[in-house]
């Protein structure tokens, strides 16, 4: 059926990419459009389109290809990553196809379901969210190290259901965490308050009002799992988040 055809084509394309030294990386260097060049996203889209994933009839919707190209171009720039994402999108499409029409899934590609592209932007969005994380994960990844460490400290305190977390307590635990690493120096208390203010403005922490600054109660506004996913590439933070027992 057509799903098998798409998978086979992706296998062939992936093998070709792996066998060549050129074309593995999607060009991530932007060219000044005012000088007649094309953007990195345009080049990424062209790279994927050139793999004959968009044909007549189309196998993957053009908007889905463009979305995949933008995401990969902005992150790894690796064409192999884009192909892996396309493969996963095909698998999502296959699952949807079987759920909607079990009988048709055993028939050939003449099913009405495949009169349009079998892989839509909806399938692509599901895969991209899994591959690159939610908007919250993206936001956390954009923080500096100490902002992430403050978030992780608050998350661990919350997950272990200890006493109410105040700004004063959070700073003490944060300071202790820095010392325990043996390589990270804690910021001053004043700088720490600035970190917390920034995290609150990003919607990642909530700090209640209080007469005393140090007694203000702090609560986490993100899921522990999202935070753990966002910091997994930073060894110190990944180790810290894994130590929750």
From TrEMBL:
Q: Establish whether keyword Ion transport is in the entry.
A: no
Decide whether keyword Acyltransferase is in the record: no
Q: Which domain of life is it from?
A: Eukaryota
Q: Which GO terms describe its cellular component?
A: nucleus
User: What span is annotated as the signal peptide, if there is one?
Assistant: none
Q: Which GO terms describe its biological process?
A: DNA replication initiation; mitotic DNA replication checkpoint signaling
Q: Residues in domain Cdc6 C-terminal?
A: 150-231
A GO MF term: DNA replication origin binding
The UniProt keyword set, sorted, is: DNA replication
**One of this protein's Pfam families, by short name?**
WHD_Cdc6
**Family statement:** Belongs to the CDC6/cdc18 family.
The name under which this protein is listed is: AAA ATPase
């Amino acid at each position: 059926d057509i799903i098998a055809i798409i998978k086979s084509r992706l296998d062939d394309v992936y093998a070709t990419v792996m066998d060549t030294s050129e074309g593995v990386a999607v060009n991530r260097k932007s060219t000044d459009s005012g000088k007649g060049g094309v953007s990195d996203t345009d080049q990424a889209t062209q790279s994927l389109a050139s793999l004959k994933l968009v044909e007549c009839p189309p196998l993957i919707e053009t908007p889905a290809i463009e979305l995949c190209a933008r995401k990969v171009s902005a992150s790894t720039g690796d064409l192999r990553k884009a192909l892996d994402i396309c493969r996963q999108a095909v698998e999502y499409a296959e699952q949807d196809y079987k759920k909607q029409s079990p009988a048709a899934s055993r028939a050939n590609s003449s099913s009405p379901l495949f009169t349009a592209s079998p892989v839509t932007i909806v399938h692509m969005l599901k895969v991209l969210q899994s591959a690159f994380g939610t908007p919250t994960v993206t936001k956390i990844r954009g923080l500096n190290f100490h902002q992430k460490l403050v978030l992780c400290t608050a998350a661990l305190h919350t997950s272990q259901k200890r006493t109410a977390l105040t700004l004063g307590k959070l700073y003490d635990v944060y300071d202790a965490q820095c010392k325990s690493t043996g390589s990270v120096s804690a910021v001053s208390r004043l700088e720490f308050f600035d970190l917390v203010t920034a995290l609150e403005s990003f919607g990642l922490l909530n700090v209640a009002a209080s007469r005393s600054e140090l007694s203000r109660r702090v609560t986490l506004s993100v899921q522990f799992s999202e935070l753990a996913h966002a910091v997994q590439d930073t060894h110190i933070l990944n180790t810290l988040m894994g130590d929750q027992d």
